[in-house]
Amino acid sequence: MGGIDQAMKTKLQNKILCLTMCLLILLANIHAVKCLAILNEYADRIFVCYPKDGASASALGQLQENDKGERFSEAALWKSAGEVKVSAENTGRGKKAGLYQIQGQPGAVFGNGCVCGRYFTEEESAACMLDQGLARELFGSEKVSGMEVEANGKIYQVTGILKGNLSVCAVPAGENTGFDGAAVRKQKAAQSSAQAFSLVETVLGSTDGQKVDGQLYFMTAILFYTLVFSFMLSAAGIAALKRGGFLPVCIFGICISASIWGVISGVKIAAPGVDYLPTYWSDPDFFGRIFREKAAQIQSLAAHQEFFAWQEMLHAWVQSIGAGIFAGMIFGILASYIRPRREGGFIKEEASSHRV
């Protein structure tokens, strides 16, 4: 009886291990999909940084006039005015915060980052937006639209609250302001980022400063995720085929078909476009240059993140890649564990060696 009890205990342990690993894979995939959804929100945005006051106030009008809404749905310039004390008179609280002057549409800079209230418009001169951390410091709440704050000796009315805890206060830019960067939102995420950067630099001037391309992060993350997911499906199909029989062959066919469909769908969703195809296929160094250029952009963003939107994008990208790697590793362990019975597993069943 002892041998039977031990065999049942071993089988139960095996099932618990398998279920645990399957659950971990499922959770990793859910987290990866959540991160990809965040990256998708930024896939249509690009940012270009300039030396201090390197972009003129008239450049935005020229950019909008030259583009005529064909490529960009939103455009804005920003300037970092450094840290200033922002205070709320009705609570008596004050805190130093990064002051940003914005010309154009703030949504181009902050993305879908307005969690409460609204963005100020170009016609408003005494409006501002606070991020969540600063709003809580000054008012103890995020629902403070319509309240007033003082910054740089001027009174501003809060129109909206931005995501993040970086202590940021954004206000409309004054006349003759020089700007540190530009942000635009493409009409479609799949549009060429290279052409978008080229148009911005044509109007504002070329720069060796930081460039942030939202499409790069979404595209690489979705491609990596679909490749890992397709690999897991293919491995599962091959493992089923080794067992032999009609049903395993059917499972193999379904898994391989789903794997191929996943890769094709991933490429379609990622939409790398002409930016990642050489003009002449005789250019052997094209993909090497693309890799070096994009790797430099990612390293630059990792070293400097101006806004919470940039932080959120980078963190979502890192976590989506990490979730894919984690899911692949756990699947590899699971695949090596669930083998044909004659090969055993991590926990060997020894019931056959016992007699009742």
Protein described:
The structure is a single chain. The protein is of the alpha+beta class. It folds into two domains: 13-43 and 216-343, no CATH class; 51-208, no CATH class. Helices cover 50% and strands 20% of the residues. The protein has helices spanning 2-42, 58-67, 106-110, 132-139, 193-204, 214-241, 246-270, 286-303, 308-337; strands at 45-49, 72-88, 93-104, 114-117, 127-131, 148-151, 154-162, 168-172, 181-186, 211-213. It has a six-stranded mixed beta barrel with strand order 2-3-8-5-7-6. Helix 1 (2-42) packs antiparallel against helix 6 (214-241). The longest helix is centred in the N-terminal third of the chain and has 41 residues, at 2-42. The termini are close together.
Brief overview:
This protein is of the alpha+beta class. The protein folds into two domains: 13-43 and 216-343, no CATH class; 51-208, no CATH class. It has nine helices and ten strands.
